[in-house]
Amino acid sequence: MNGADSPFGAHFSPAPGYLAACTAGLPSLETARAMRGFVDEWAAGRLDPVALSHSVERCRELFAGLAGVESGRVAVGSQVSQLVSIVASSLPDGAEVLCPEGDFASLAHPFAQLSDRGIRLRFAPLGELAAAVTPETSLVAFSLVQSASGEIADHIAIRSAAAAAGARTLADLTQSLGWLPVSAGGFDFTVCHAYKWLCAPRGTAFLTMREGLEREATPLAAGWCSADDVWQSCYAGHMPLAAGAGRFDLSPAWPAIAGTEAALRLFADLDPAAVHAHDLGLANTARAALGLPAGDSAIVTWADPEGRDLAAMQAAGITASGRAGNARIAFHLWNSEADVASLAGALGR
């Protein structure tokens, strides 16, 4: 059975050949139960918005613990691009934003749309990003782990170069948090959609920001959930903003919240070092089987410009993806050595 030799397999339903955490994580058994429970309560007319607002706060606290920051530094939204837009709004006119070539569009697009304010988006290869920082750079925005290649950014060098130039940093943790232990506290801003490596339902994303930066950004979509006490900010005439990052909250996608809380609680209970060792160990076992050198990422990619390897994997019942001319697979909690054997068989290795 898939997951039988994984120390984490008991948390998930069998999913043989699912090598796509980098596309979407799988729900744990508890996450699936929580989401079914929401639908059952809703269908029975027992939807409780107050209880859901408490669940949002628990999600904020759980994410803060996973990200290594205080809960007051966390905003809860729905999509990465919406949260990046908050950071973009804080930039002065004429600012330069440095971004890796080929990074994900949701990270770069919000800055590209501000050209009428003179915002300049400049690109450099990921491996040269630190060296590309200049005194003209206002913000370095990058995915800690690249979507298309799985490459891990040298965030220590990037942060050092940014600090020396007086620039701020924005790290997208969507492809890293959940398998790669890195604290969000070392960056000025981070964003993370929880539906990949944190195995939450799609529709819950998080923003973290260093203390004090919330006063420099505009709550672009401020609403009734942008206050510390949401039930006292429902109507015009009394619309206070939260003291911390919560002022950037969106009204949550209710069907996703119960599942998000269950997903984050699972990761809060796991040993991050054990998860990292499991995921990376399977990824490097797969690399060896494919004749690739060992790497440091749970995402494994190789050139597949015509999609032949991807088609072969799919024909063998393996769920994988293709990005930017690469075949792409990933290993997470539900995966086991059996998945590597299936991969090797599908590709004739």
Describe this structure in words.
This protein has ten helices and ten strands. It has helices spanning about 30-45, 50-65, 80-90, 105-110, 130, 155-165, 255-270, 270-290, 310-315, 335-345, and strands spanning about 75, 95-100, 120-125, 135-145, 170, 190-195, 205-210, 300-305, 320-325, 325-330. Helix 6 (about 155-165) links the parallel strand 4 and strand 5 (about 170). The model has no long low-confidence stretch (mean pLDDT about 95).
Largest sheet: 7 strands, mixed
Secondary structure tally, helices? 10
Strand and helix order: HHEHEHEHEHEEEHHEHEEH
- Work out the number of β strands: 10
Gyration radius from CA atoms, angstroms: 21 Å
Provide mean pLDDT, rounded: 95
Name the strands of the widest sheet in spatial order.
1-7-6-5-4-2-3
Secondary structural class: alpha/beta
Proportion of beta-strand residues: 5-15%
Low-confidence stretches: none
